């Protein structure tokens, strides 16, 4: 299992962020100075007006330390810079991926699912199906895809138990793959055992203060 705790935050995006993806740059400029945080990404969900913010933390404790250090001022400043990109409350969850998710994050398109086992199914059975999906997707040789999944650290009656992310060349490739065996059967099996919240993104990596060209929408 990956040693890092990956924060996957999901929130309604502001109109300002929809126009200009670089709006989160000041927040990430602050966060990158903390040695316990790394591999920062963000994106506007492709189908819905939501923002995804991805942060790799050395551990849950590293995140908690950042929130409390300097009497909480550093974290408060980070949130204040992030707020203009949001139009509603964020739902941050921490995921311990079973394998390195960065290849999927760096793919042109990501497919996400927040996975909650149905009442008549154990989390172990759901995890077994997720593992089969990952094994199949990672077995592709000719397409730049990858995948990983992991349990969510937070628990609660309304909290999903897993997050799975698959990297794809494009949406067309993804939809074609979904209709072929065995991915179609595995998808059907997962839907029979779990409730899914699905999203798609083109993650933008933070690199040296530059969140990527072409982020400003006229």
Describe this structure as you would to a colleague.
By secondary structure, the protein is α+β, with helices and mostly antiparallel strands. The chain has 2 domains: 5-96, Alpha-Beta Plaits (2-Layer Sandwich), CATH 3.30.70; 102-201, Alpha-Beta Plaits, CATH 3.30.70. The chain is 32% helix and 28% strand. The chain is built from 8 helices and 9 strands. It has helices at residues 15-19, 25-31, 60-68, 73-82, 102-105, 123-137, 171-178, 183-193, and strands at residues 5-12, 37-44, 50-57, 91-95, 109-117, 146-151, 162-168, 194-201, 204-205. The strands form 2 sheets. A 5-stranded antiparallel beta sheet has the order 4-1-3-2-9. It has a 4-stranded antiparallel beta sheet with strand order 6-7-5-8. It is globular, with a radius of gyration of 17 Å. The relative contact order is 0.21.
- Radius of gyration in whole Å, from Cα? 17 Å
**pLDDT average, as an integer?**
90
Number of strands: 9
N/C terminus separation: 42 Å
What number of structural domains do the residues give?
2
Strand content: 25-35%
Structural shape: globular
CATH class of the largest domain: Alpha Beta
Helix amount: 25-40%
């Amino acid at each position: 299992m990956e040693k890092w705790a990956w924060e996957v935050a999901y929130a309604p995006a502001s109109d300002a962020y929809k126009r200009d993806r670089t709006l989160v740059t000041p927040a990430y400029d602050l966060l990158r100075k903390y040695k316990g945080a790394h591999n920062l990404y963000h994106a506007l969900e492709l189908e819905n007006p939501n923002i995804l913010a991805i942060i790799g933390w050395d551990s849950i404790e590293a995140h908690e330390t950042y929130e409390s250090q300097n009497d909480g001022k550093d974290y408060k400043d980070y949130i204040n810079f992030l707020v203009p990109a949001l139009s509603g409350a964020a739902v941050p969850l921490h995921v311990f991926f079973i394998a390195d998710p960065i290849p999927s994050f760096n793919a042109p398109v990501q497919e996400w699912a927040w996975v909650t086992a149905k009442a008549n199914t154990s989390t172990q059975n759901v995890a077994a199906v997720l593992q089969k999906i990952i094994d199949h997707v990672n077995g592709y040789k000719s397409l730049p895809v990858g995948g990983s999944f992991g349990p969510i650290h937070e628990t609660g009656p309304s909290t999903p138990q897993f997050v799975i992310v698959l990297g794809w060349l494009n949406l067309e490739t993804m939809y074609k793959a979904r209709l072929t065996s065995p991915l179609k059967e595995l998808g059907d099996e997962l839907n029979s055992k779990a409730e899914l919240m699905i999203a798609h993104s083109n993650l933008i990596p933070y690199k040296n203060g530059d969140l990527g060209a072409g982020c400003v929408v006229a």
